[in-house]
Backbone:
């Protein structure tokens, strides 16, 4: 069983991780922003923590449920207008932030941090590409 301090640390880190990704989505004016990403990360961390306490020998079922459920949430962010699809990156970021929440819930801090860096870099690629092309 985890100490109370460990639980609090994991949940606080989930707030921070969700906020960092959510801020990026918010500043680029996407439908799912700060609060959505924070809630998904906190929720994934919370459910992971509860599953580790209730089902210490079989947390995989709960993990699969989180990933599936968040996939449905992300699917609600995808819209199609004639030949244009919108919301795929936001849906993927929601799904990815749930993965970060899962990592934090299990105490896999290095995995969570490396994933956060990869997610934020990926979300910034368009702006990086524009800056590079502008200098040419």
Residues:
């Amino acid at each position: 069983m985890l100490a109370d301090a460990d639980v609090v640390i994991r949940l606080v880190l989930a707030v921070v991780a969700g906020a960092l990704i959510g801020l990026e989505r918010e500043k680029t004016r996407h439908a799912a922003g700060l609060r959505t990403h924070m809630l998904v990360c906190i929720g994934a961390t919370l459910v992971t923590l509860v599953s580790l306490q209730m089902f210490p020998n079989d947390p995989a079922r709960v993990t699969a449920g989180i990933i599936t459920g968040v996939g449905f949430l992300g699917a609600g962010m995808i819209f199609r207008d004639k030949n244009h699809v919108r919301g795929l990156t936001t849906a993927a970021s929601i799904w990815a932030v749930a993965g970060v929440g899962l990592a934090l819930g299990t105490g896999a801090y290095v995995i969570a941090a490396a994933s956060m860096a990869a997610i934020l870099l990926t979300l910034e690629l368009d702006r990086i590409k524009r800056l590079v092309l502008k200098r040419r």
The mean pLDDT is 89. The beta strands are 79-81, 84-86. The two ends are 57 Å apart (CA to CA). The chain has one domain: 4-135.
